[in-house]
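[Meeting: bench + compute handoff]

Bench side (C.D.) handed over the final construct sequence. Compute side (W.E.) agreed to return the predicted structure before the next meeting so the bench team could plan truncations. Sequence as handed over:
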Amino acid sequence: MTLDPERFNSIISKIGHAKVMILGDIMLDEYLFGSVNRISPEAPVPVVEIASDRVLLGGAANVAANIRALGNVPILVGTVGEDEAASKLARLLRQHDISGDFCIDDSSRQTTIKTRVMANSQQIVRADREDRQEIDTNIEERIFNRILSISDEIDAVIISDYGKGVVTASLLEKVIGVCERKNIFVGVDPHESRFSNYRQVSLITPNHHEAGFAYGRRISSPADLDEVGRGLLKQLKLRSILITRGADGMSLYQTEEKPTHIPTFARRVFDVTGAGDTVIALFVSAVCTGANLTESAIIANAGAGLSVAEVGTASVTKAQLSKELQRNIQNGNL
């Protein structure tokens, strides 16, 4: 597998001129950093002495942050609660120069918060505050009407489905229908129990556990991987599926093409939180420049290696991406 340096430089230089809609579950990622020096006398658990905290965009909002960091215009669509977390999220969106105009307030739901307690460079525990019931039909209709109002302006759509109730089957069917009629690329970061909802999209990006679960076969060998990749491609009538495989890299399956297996570029792994968000944001951004699916997967893989080297959700810039790809070409990885 080779990627000509001039070709990838051309792709990177063109990234940053697309308008990308992100529909999905909007979250806040909260981090509490501290140290552990003793065990609680109340229960056999560590006592974490908190020294600092940090709040970051999560879920679909982190995808939007990744799209924005590359110079594109993200249009974030989803719901938030009428609560303090929603106010924090709005401030973070403004800091990232991301419009919250298409985020709908829903008083029946709380804004999703995932709180991670970190000590001595390890995650000790995660606490989730969320609602997982599906949005009601009124909210769904409002979301779809907003999507329709901008459908002529967008270059691509990313569905960020964390299974929190925003991406309903009926909403997704309508959105996919609009995109098919307008020839808009649709990439989905899927939820493992909802694969049947993603029929006929341009791309899905499951990890190998999600892909195996959805197909009903545990991936434990290259033969399993090929069966699952080709099987899902045919079963769901997809244009492509990119299966992320952790330390083993990524595998791209396309209709009427041989599979492409891409080795991992990660030099160190501190935190995999949000790595999938980075993958789909980079893949779709590359596609919007005219890059083919294989080139887009290689670029997404390079960005994922940078993302997991940071604690917390992290966005990758064009300069970082260019440097990382150049390093891997020089090292013979590409």
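W.E. noted at the follow-up: The chain has one domain: 5-35+49-330. C.D. will use this when planning the next construct.
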